């Protein structure tokens, strides 16, 4: 190990390393310029082409919305204009061209999911301001089995995220794990710097770990009926259509093996594509112990931030406990969710930060508005715009037309073909709209197709429901993606590159898993 300077107390004196964005070569810089320039011309060209192209099978509003969606998605992918601006421009164009009224188009900007983001971002800011994320991170890294290699750190952080998401929403899980993971990355950078005697660029590993958080949160939600709304939607629609109620643990017997296989494949995938510059962390234990000691005793701000964080976690976890004890149809479960929806929980916990004092005599509280206002507002606009466009896709019938069009093009009529098609449509839709909306539209359609073809409708419905959770490509696809994109550490091109291949791999894993496991669990 290279020699490291020490301070007057004998502690390692290292530069304040920070997670850094991926460095790009001169050729990649040229590609980025070409990509953005192309988008400036391609986005309006696609809009005009689709707008004036005859589409007799679509209603006028759906036809116009298709042009708006093409424009917006092109802007998102090419980043020809800032992504939050594109997200605002999409609903604005929809209003201007008569797809929806202003109130209808902009209501999604205050959707509960957006407010859940807001509360989660404020909590993360408080943890960052008072160093609680760093204390959490060093505690995780101090576990002997985790801190030995960068590979095990990736497995530990991703595994915790996946497990939590089985019982919490993917959004709540990502909101909790994001600041902790950022703290882990900061601590890890300092450890590697101490081992090399200088600051080292480890941005590729950072990209992999942050994407691991986003994708593990979505994959973990597949494991239980309460893990994500599409699961409950699928179970409910199957019961209405067939009279068969899938029990809580029956769903787990089907979904958990698929979830675990997808997680392990993802872990191997990111270890391969995003390796750490320093795999072996031998000798890191002493450094971690020194860093933990340097943090000193708990401070009032840390304790207050932890209180607010634990309040959020407790209120987010409680519905899962109630569901396990009394079921998701019990009056207690419904009453609790009415009183404490996830967005309200996030805002309650965030508001505590402005009441819990650090120094009451000087009226100093855990977080000031000056500190809180520095959260990433662009991500809130991004997701609000995405939700708005997604809702309009269903109200205008564009989403339904897309699904039926794919069916007529492929002529699917066997169990394999209908299952494969239903899952594919769900994945395509969930990349541009919410997973709940995608499942709501696709699941009943594939059940109808399967019933008409005389095949078992359960495998196609389950595959479509699970496919709605496979949103790995765009920041707007699902809240965890938006949270990670909002960190500024993962460019949209990296999310598209890694997410697309994971979508392809996951597609075949889920398809095979559903077709093999449904008969084995009695479905």
Task: Describe this structure as you would to a colleague.
The protein is mainly alpha-helical and 523 residues long. It contains 24 helices and 2 strands. The chain has helices at 26-52, 60-78, 83-96, 102-106, 112-130, 132-141, 144-147, 150-165, 170-196, 203-220, 229-242, 248-273, 284-295, 300-326, 331-339, 342-352, 369-372, 377-395, 398-410, 415-430, 435-453, 458-467, 479-485, 492-520, and strands at residues 357-359, 364-365. The longest helix has 29 residues, at 492-520. The radius of gyration is 24 Å and the shape is globular. The termini are far apart.
Set out the fold topology.
Blueprint: H1 26-52, H2 60-78, H3 83-96, H4 102-106, H5 112-130, H6 132-141, H7 144-147, H8 150-165, H9 170-196, H10 203-220, H11 229-242, H12 248-273, H13 284-295, H14 300-326, H15 331-339, H16 342-352, E1 357-359, E2 364-365, H17 369-372, H18 377-395, H19 398-410, H20 415-430, H21 435-453, H22 458-467, H23 479-485, H24 492-520
Helix pairs in contact: 1-2, 2-3, 3-18, 5-9, 5-14, 5-16, 5-18, 6-9, 6-13, 8-9, 8-10, 9-10, 9-23, 10-12, 10-23, 11-21, 11-22, 12-24, 14-15, 14-16, 18-23, 19-20, 19-21, 20-21, 20-22, 20-24, 21-22, 22-24
Percent range for helical residues? over 70%
Radius of gyration: 24 Å
Oligomer: single chain
Strand content: under 5%
How far apart are the termini? 57 Å
**SSE sequence, one letter per element:** HHHHHHHHHHHHHHHHEEHHHHHHHH
What structural class is derived from the secondary structure elements?
mainly alpha
Output the number of helix runs.
24
What would you call the shape? globular
Spatial order of the strands forming the largest sheet: 1-2
Major sheet? 2 strands, antiparallel
What does the average pLDDT come to? 81
Q: Can you count the beta strands? A: 2
List the uncertain runs. Answer: 1-17
């Amino acid at each position: 190990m290279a020699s490291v300077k020490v301070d007057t107390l004998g502690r390692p004196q290292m530069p304040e390393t920070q997670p850094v964005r991926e460095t790009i070569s001169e050729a990649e810089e040229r590609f980025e310029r070409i990509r953005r320039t192309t988008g400036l011309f391609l986005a309006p060209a696609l809009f005009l082409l689709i707008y004036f192209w005859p589409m007799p099978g679509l209603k006028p509003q759906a036809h116009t919305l298709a042009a708006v969606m093409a424009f917006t998605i092109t802007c998102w992918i090419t980043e020809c204009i800032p992504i939050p601006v594109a997200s605002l421009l999409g609903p604005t164009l929809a209003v201007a061209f008569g797809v929806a009224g202003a109130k209808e188009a902009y209501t999604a900007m205050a959707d509960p999911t957006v407010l859940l983001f807001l509360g989660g971002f404020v909590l993360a800011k408080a943890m960052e301001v008072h160093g609680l994320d760093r204390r959490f991170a060093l505690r995780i890294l101090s576990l002997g089995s985790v801190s030995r290699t960068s590979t095990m750190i990736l497995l530990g952080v991703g595994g915790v995220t996946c497990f939590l998401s089985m019982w919490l929403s993917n959004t709540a899980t990502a909101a909790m794990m994001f600041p902790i993971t950022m703290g882990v990355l900061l601590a890890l950078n300092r450890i590697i710097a101490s081992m090399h005697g200088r600051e080292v660029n480890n941005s590729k590993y950072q990209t992999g770990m942050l994407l691991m958080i986003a994708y593990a949160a979505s994959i973990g939600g597949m494991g239980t009926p309460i893990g994500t709304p599409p699961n409950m939607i699928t179970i409910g629609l199957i019961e209405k259509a067939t009279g068969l109620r899938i029990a809580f643990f029956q769903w787990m017997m089907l979904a958990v093996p698929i979830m675990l296989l997808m997680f392990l494949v993802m872990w191997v995938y990111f270890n391969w594509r995003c390796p750490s510059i320093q795999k072996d962390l031998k000798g890191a234990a002493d450094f971690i112990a020194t860093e933990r000691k340097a943090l000193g005793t708990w401070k009032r701000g840390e304790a207050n931030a932890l209180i607010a964080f634990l309040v959020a976690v407790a209120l987010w976890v409680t519905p899962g406990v109630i569901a396990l004890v009394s079921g998701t149809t019990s009056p207690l479960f419904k009453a609790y969710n009415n009183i404490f929806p996830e967005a309200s929980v996030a805002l309650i916990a965030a508001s505590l930060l402005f009441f819990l004092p650090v120094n009451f005599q000087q009226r100093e509280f855990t977080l000031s508005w000056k500190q809180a206002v520095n959260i990433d507002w662009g991500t809130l606009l991004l997701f609000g715009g995405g939700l708005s466009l997604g809702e309009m896709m269903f109200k205008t019938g564009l989403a339904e037309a897309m699904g039926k069009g794919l069916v007529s093009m492929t002529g699917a009529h066997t169990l394999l073909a209908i299952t494969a098609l239903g899952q594919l449509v769900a994945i395509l839709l969930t990349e541009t709209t919410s997973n709940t909306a995608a499942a709501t539209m696709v699941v009943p359609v594939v059940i109808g197709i399967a019933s008409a073809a005389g095949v078992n409708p359960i495998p196609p419905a389950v595959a479509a429901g699970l496919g709605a959770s496979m949103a790995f490509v765009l920041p707007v696809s699902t809240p965890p993606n938006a949270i990670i994109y909002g960190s500024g550490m993962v460019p949209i091109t990296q999310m598209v590159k890694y997410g697309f291949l994971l979508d392809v791999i996951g597609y075949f894993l889920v398809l095979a898993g559903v077709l093999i496991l449904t008969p084995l669990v009695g479905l």
